[in-house]
Amino acid sequence: MQLAQRQACETFCLTGQTICRTLPPMLDPGIRRLLDAYPAIFLACHRQHVHEDEAGKYVTEHQASVLDHLQVARPTTLSKLAEHMGVGRSAMSITVKRLVHSGYITSARDKNDARCVGLTLTPAGARVKEQNTVLDPELVKKMFRLMSSVELEMALQGIECLARQARIMLRRRNRGGS
């Protein structure tokens, strides 16, 4: 590494990573505002995660993350789930089998294409998913109460707009676009 790069890395590198990725000294003001705001919301409203269900069965963070990507009514295939979570089908298959055995997921063959198996949440899986949301709904409610109705509506419209664009980015990324 050249001296100037090493000095830049030492100045801006946030971790002791072997491969140092530097942050530009000046970020776009909009990006800076988002990067400054998000951690405050996360820290104020972050939930203590539940690692057991109501029957006392242990649920790992990885299993809770898998449940978070499934829905009660709209089936998802194992392949799509594995691709989205960045793991191989065999690894995802092991996790899904454990979650099916624990009663959190159901798997059913597609009526139109018997080769496809759809994964959905059971009521127990939906409860575990709800108990493991990133933000605690009660803390979010407290934060909302601090805002006027106009501020709250503007904030919700803004976050919904960001979420729409994030979904577009994810779809493009999954199709190989940028």
The neighbouring-strand order within the major sheet is 1-3-2
Cα-to-Cα separation, first versus last residue = 29 Å
- Name the CATH class of the domain at 61-131: Mainly Alpha
Fraction of residues in helix: 55-70%
Named CATH topology of the domain at 61-131: Arc Repressor Mutant, subunit A
Task: Give a concise summary.
The chain is mainly α. The chain is about 55% helix and about 5% strand. A hairpin with a 7-residue loop joins strand 2 and strand 3.
Task: Offer a few descriptive terms.
56% helix; 3 strands; globular; Arc Repressor Mutant, subunit A; mainly alpha; 7% strand
Commentary on this structure:
This protein has 178 residues and is mainly α. Among the domains are: 61-131, Winged helix-like DNA-binding domain superfamily/Winged helix DNA-binding domain (Arc Repressor Mutant, subunit A), CATH 1.10.10; 135-178. Helices cover 56% and strands 7% of the residues. The protein contains eight helices and three strands. It has helices at 3-12, 29-45, 61-68, 78-85, 89-101, 123-131, 137-145, 149-174; strands at residues 76-77, 105-109, 117-121. It has a three-stranded antiparallel sheet with strand order 1-3-2. A hairpin with a 7-residue loop joins β2 (105-109) and β3. α3 (61-68) crosses α6 and α4 packs across α5 (89-101). The longest helix has 26 residues, at 149-174. The protein is globular and about 50 Å long. Mean pLDDT is 83; it is low at 5-18.
